[in-house]
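the three lines:
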Amino acid sequence: MLGDIGGYLSSPSNRGKVLELLGQHLVLALLPLLIGLVVAVPLGWAAHRRRWLRAAVFGSATVVYTVPALALFVIMPGLLGTRILDQANVLVALTLYTGALLVRPVVDALDAVPGPVVAAATAMGYQPARRFAAVELPMAIPVLTVGVRVASVSNISLVSVGALIGTGGLGQLFTEGFQTRYLAPIVIGIVLIVWLALVMDLLLVGLRRVTTPWTRAA
Amino acid sequence: MIFSQVLAWFADPAHWRGPDGVGTRIVEHLYYTAVAVLIASAIAVPVGLLVGHTARGGVVLVGSANAMRALPTLGLLTFLFLLLRSQAAATLVALVVLAVPPVLAGSYAGVRSVESGVVDAARGMGMTSAQRLWQVELPGAVGLLLGGVRSAVLQVVATTTVAAYVGLGGLGRLLLDGLNSADYPQMAAGALVIAVLALLLDLLLAGVARLVVPKGCRLSRQSDLGRMAAAQPRLIGG
Amino acid sequence: MGTRIAALIAAVLVALAMPGCGSGNPLAGGGTAGTVAVGSANFAESELLMELYAAALRKAGVPVQTRPRLGPREITNRALADGSITVMPEYTGNLLHFIDPASTATAADEVYAALRKALPSTLQVLDQSTAEDSDVLVVTQQTSARLGLTSMAALAPHCPQLTLGAAGEWPARWKDKIAQVYGCTFRQILSTDAGGPVTLEALRSGQAQVVNLFTTSPDIAANHWVELADPQHMYPAQRVVALVRAGLLNQAGIDALNSVSAALTTAKLTELDRRVTQDRAVPADLAKEFVNGLP
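prediction for all of em together
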């Protein structure tokens, strides 16, 4: 096996291909993560403030992330009017998934901010928007990070399914290896994806540490 | 326009009957899901409960469960098929590997969620370790455990869709064959059926959880959301 | 606090934009101005043909970009139509069927002529090659000897006892046709894959007694399997041909592509396929070799 992997990587065009796919994969997984978060926060905020919105928001989120990735990827051009090869299709689908995945943790995290703290902030004169940015959101970060970590692993893994329609990042190594009965590219793909997920996870934990210094205080 | 084509596809009875019909595909899909989740639970529930009960190896368990979540479905399926040379074996192993983490995390989190005060009281009352596990910790764990099973079911339903790539039956066939024969209505119809199936299963399991979880153990809104979030991620066909 | 978070987000965004810089921009839609993008479908031989055409274009001094593994025809044709790619290696029969499903042409020249007529004005096929990669039903040597099977014409009496292994989309297109043309109704049709490991394994393990493969599959010869003849031409001709976006290639490019098509034969293509699947040769390197050997 190791010999096979070495053999596969000894060719410069294979190495170049793997690197290019890795780059593609990163963008396809991380951009939706960011945009999904940006979408989920205001939505979650709205659902947190108004009870009646919750059912609608959670309901649609559930529906969105129940649709299988592959199906959503292919339906996108019909919905968006994009060109079929645009990586935008996979990007938008993954953004929808991430947003749907993160909406609940946002609401739960905001719900978990202790009432007295919010009251104190209001009493100190914080306007709602400032209070949200300066008090509630930061306090929500630890719980939110758990959700983001899950979404990150999920996206990094999901991108490879796009290989079935030609936008799969490292997933292309799987279809290729399978058709030519060559285990080496498959193993390389799996290892890189798991490694990517690990690195992202560590980065996110680090990010949480940096943005919530009070949790480290004795 | 595509909407009316999809409706027309559903309206055609030929699409429902026969070995290629939606009916057969649904049954196949449910069968693979049931078998995989049962096997995964048989493995993951005892391990999760035990590790949670003895409070040893928790970090390793959570770490391994997270690492297993990172495994890409398509990669796993293709790797296993080339190795095992059998559609059934490759798919089953892949589905089980992907179903174990949520159930494992759910059982472990469930046991850990039982308040230590309650466990201590049980110990004080003279319960043995086994009695504590069965009579105190397990009932308390059922909520999060079932949450883990629910996640696993969704994960497997979605993953079985991808398994059509190695020739497996099930609803993924509608998607993939539609894609390969440029039959857009079939693909959209397949996606719809899978989505509805997953939603129904989810509702069903939520109902089961309501029935089974003792009222006193229902998690309140504010209680340990972090552990809940960790136990109920939804990974979709990835 | 808010500004700290904002600064962090900005930093992350900048970091994310990094991989997007440079020539390998994964978000770019099509070839950059002047570059010819050659696509391929989601299987090894298509990728090989893509590399062959790309290498020939390069040799002719045309700047080339390869876009491998784009997906099924639905996607590749749309890519050609909207300019994401300029060249696509194709097979005459399947391309014709995709554009004009009602066509009944099956012989090679018939198919080619019908194709030229059926294509929209934005697309064009260049010269067709003699190399052909069509569907073929295959049985093991033992089955062939036992049942006296060397042709699809002899299948009919045996079909009810035989299981066929074929790609998931095979029944929709051929189940009725084979009953009509050869009077064959299989006992069972297993969905495997398009000539890939699942299909090969199905025949090897005996799960299926007949499988649908392709004429350039190196595994047929390697396993001493028997191809069933198709005297009624149920399967249409599948000559290799370059499908291009009209008006975007200069004469040098067109000649380069035609030279590859002219030089390819079914035997040569099968040999190239064998070198990729069995010798693990890299398609791009094989292509360079092949093209350098051209006059």
